[in-house]
UniProtKB/TrEMBL annotation, chain A:
Organism field: Streptomyces misionensis
Protein name stated in the entry: Uncharacterized protein
Keyword terms, alphabetized: Membrane, Transmembrane, Transmembrane helix
Source lineage: Bacteria, Bacillati, Actinomycetota, Actinomycetes, Kitasatosporales
Residues passing through the membrane, by range: 9-31, 37-54
UniProt keyword annotation of Membrane present: yes
UniProtKB/TrEMBL annotation, chain B:
Subcellular compartments: Cell membrane
Cited InterPro entries: MrpF/PhaF-like
Keywords: Cell membrane, Membrane, Transmembrane, Transmembrane helix
Domain of life: Bacteria
Keyword Nuclease attached: no
Membrane-spanning parts: 32-49, 61-80, 92-112, 119-140
Taxonomic placement: Bacteria, Bacillati, Actinomycetota, Actinomycetes, Kitasatosporales
Protein name, entry field: Multisubunit sodium/proton antiporter, MrpF subunit
Keyword Transmembrane helix part of the UniProt annotation: yes
The organism of origin for this protein: Streptomyces misionensis
GO molecular function: monoatomic ion transmembrane transporter activity
A GO cellular component entry from the record: plasma membrane
Predominant place of localization: membrane
Amino acid sequence: MDRRTTPRTVLLVVGELLAWWAALTLLWLVLISSVYPLEWIVGASVAAAGALLARAGRRAVSWR
Amino acid sequence: MNGWVLAATVELAGGGAAALWGVTTGPTARRVVAQNLTTAALCPALLLLAQGYGRPSYVDLALLLALLGPVGTLVFARLLHEDLEGQRPSAWGLTYAVAAMGAVVVAAVCAATGPGRAMVKLLVIGALLVGGNLIASRALSGAFRGVRGG
C-alpha cells in the first residue's frame, strides 16, 4: 500500500470531491429558474463532472 | 418608462459612453483599464433592465458578463504584458466607484426581489462582479506579475 492508496488519502480525496459536488449542485439549483426532478438529476450529474474538473484544476495550481 | 429603466438608461448613457470613449482613445494603458471597467459599468445596467422590464432572463446575461468580463481582462493583461512593461495601468478611484455602484444596484434589485433563490442568484452575480473586477484590476496593475506562470 503506497502513499496514494492509504485510507486517509482516499478519504481526503473523496471528501474533497463530495464538497465540490455539493457546492456545485447548490450553485446549479440557485442559478436555474424553476426546480423540478429532472433539473435535480441533470444538475447532480453535471456537478459530479464539475467536481472532478475542479479538483484537477485545484491540484494544477497548487505548489505541491 | 419606470425608475429601473430610467436608472439603467442613465447608467448605460453615462458609464457605457465613458467606457467607450476610454477604450477608443489614448494610450494602451488607459484603453486596457477602460476595457476592464466596461464590464462593471454594463453588468448593473442589465440587472436594472431585468427588473424594469420584468424579464428574469436578462439576469443570465448579467451573470455571463460578470463571469467572462474579468476573464477577458486577464487575457488582455497576459497578451499585452510586453506593451505594458514598466507601466502600472490602474484607476483605483474609478474602479472602487464602479464596484460600489455595482454593489448598490445589486442591493436595490435584491430588495425589490425579496428573499428566495432569485436573491441568492443576484448575490452570486454581485460577488462575481465586484470580486472579479477588483482581481482583474489588480492583475492589470501588475500585482500578480511575480506569480509562477503568470
